[in-house]
Amino acid sequence: MRFLLYLSLTVFFFSCGENKEKADLLIKNAKIYTVDKNFNIANEVVVKDKQIIAIGKKGELENQYIATDTYDLEGKYVYPGLIDAHCHFYRMGLDQSRIDLVGTKSYQDVLDKVVAFQKEKNLPFLKGSGWDQNDWDKKEFPTNEELSKLFPDIPVVLERIDGHAYLVNEKALQLAKITTKTSQKGGAIEQKNGKLTGILIDRPMELVDAIIPEPTLKQKEDALTIAEDICFSYGLTTVDDAGLDKEIIDLIGKMQTDEALKIRMYVMVSNTPANIDHYLSQPPLKTDLLNVRSIKVYGDGALGSRGAALKEEYHDKKGHFGAMVTPIDEIEALAHRIASTDFQMNSHAIGDSANIVILKAYVDALKGKEDRRWRVEHAQVVDTNDFHFFSKNILPSVQPTHATSDMYWAEERLGHHRMDGAYAFKSLLDRSGMVALGTDFPIEQVNPFLTFYAAVSRQDLKQFPEEGFRPNEKLSRKEALKGMTIWAAYSNFEEKEKGSIEVGKWADFVVLEDDIMEVDISKIPNTEVMMTFVGGELVYKK
């Protein structure tokens, strides 16, 4: 009798299992923000063949599917895989092996770090990055006199945090053949009393780039995998790398094919003749992991180094207007060339002068062309009379932490009268209907929860200012989340495959310890990622 009862129970459970549909992954007992059209909240999601095949409320799917892997999240919070709409992924990976100058409080602090690094490494060429004179008591560009004394025989190149200025020693100037007579077109070569200071801004930096030793293949591969590990630990499943050459794009594609790199990447191709000729002669490159469909163009430099192109002179440097990195006629010609293809044009524009140049070039080139989604990267200072140029066809791609980093000195650069159009994320959203959010890392930190926090609070990590920096430009939590998911995906032409948790999309999602839509805003920066999934595969676990 006992045997017959055991046999019947075995047959019963086996038949129940047989009736269930097989799947690869089941997430249950979670609060899932789908970020779908209605912003629905679910509790279970099922994955098969890297895609989401079912979404349901508590208990709905567990009885329908039998999965290879099941995670009971015990009420934790699931969000779509986060997208960084503007970053420098490869550069951040390379920076892990360079002198880290982020957070230095003085020029002496910079020098001390360089000396300590070289004492340990003893390298024939030194490269560092991350210094910012705006964080120092003496908020002026340094000169290279002391740096050259410390390192008379080897070249030293120290990159400003925004990537738009170098401080180099005398040896590097000599190797790059830079003199007081060298052309400063598209930037500046600073001089003091007729002598070079070692400060190079924007285009003249390319002369030094030419003498920097090329990383080995192993160093390039390591840079990409290190960057991926960091991004996965913060819940980023897609990154938009803002400017890469064909060689690195090819390497990324190969590593993804070999499954050595699993992060999804939307790549902006650097604007060089060789890159342009190659990519614009063929359709955009699209795989499951790689999307190469935009050209990155530099309009101007950065505000922090006074390289941003302004309509009026700098408030704190009379007679200085910044500079266009790419001449206006080249921008206009390139816009028409790109408009004749399926590629997007994604242009760096910081100052109000650069922004109107880019916007007018876009409008002219896109006449009669719909759904092109050309992007203005940063859109940092826009004349209030020029906001009307933004639309669903011309999208703003902005970085909220720039506002909270720059708020201490931005008005010094711009004057009070220009602040209404500065870091105006809500105004841009109202005009375009969406805004893509990123970090610009490694200029800012990788952490996307700092992006969310800055967008919603407009405060620094000490909750200053009390009401937020230009609080009328705050985004709601829902808007900030969309900017890091579905709107970022839209700006990449990827909204049908990612950016929300919906049936038929890639199973890219992140599990968080806290609910960023409900928790006190002050706790957002310390949000911890428990798990990150790409295509249903667990790629990071705390």
Index terms:
single chain, 542 residues, alpha/beta, Urease, subunit C, domain 1, TIM Barrel, Diaminopimelate Epimerase, Chain A, domain 1, 3 domains, nine-stranded mixed beta sheet, 25% strand, disordered N terminus
Outline the structure in words.
Helix content is 30%, strand content 25%. The chain is an alpha/beta fold and 542 residues long. It folds into three domains: 2-75, Urease, subunit C, domain 1; 83-88 and 216-500, TIM Barrel (Alpha-Beta Barrel); 97-209, Diaminopimelate Epimerase, Chain A, domain 1, CATH 3.10.310.70.
Secondary structure: elements and pairs:
Layout: H1 2-19, E1 21-28, E2 31-33, E3 41-42, E4 44-48, E5 51-56, E6 65-72, E7 77-80, E8 82-87, H2 89-95, E9 99-100, H3 107-121, E10 126-131, H4 145-150, E11 156-160, E12 165-168, H5 170-175, E13 187-192, E14 195-202, H6 205-209, H7 217-233, E15 236-244, H8 246-257, E16 264-270, H9 273-279, E17 285-286, E18 290-298, H10 328-339, E19 344-349, H11 352-365, E20 374-378, E21 394-398, H12 400-406, H13 410-414, H14 425-432, E22 436-437, H15 448-457, H16 477-483, H17 486-491, E23 509-512, E24 529-534, E25 537-541
Parallel strand pairs: 1-6, 2-7, 8-15, 9-10, 10-11, 15-16, 16-18, 18-19, 19-20, 20-21, 21-22
Antiparallel strand pairs: 1-4, 2-3, 4-5, 7-23, 11-12, 12-14, 13-14, 17-18, 23-24, 24-25
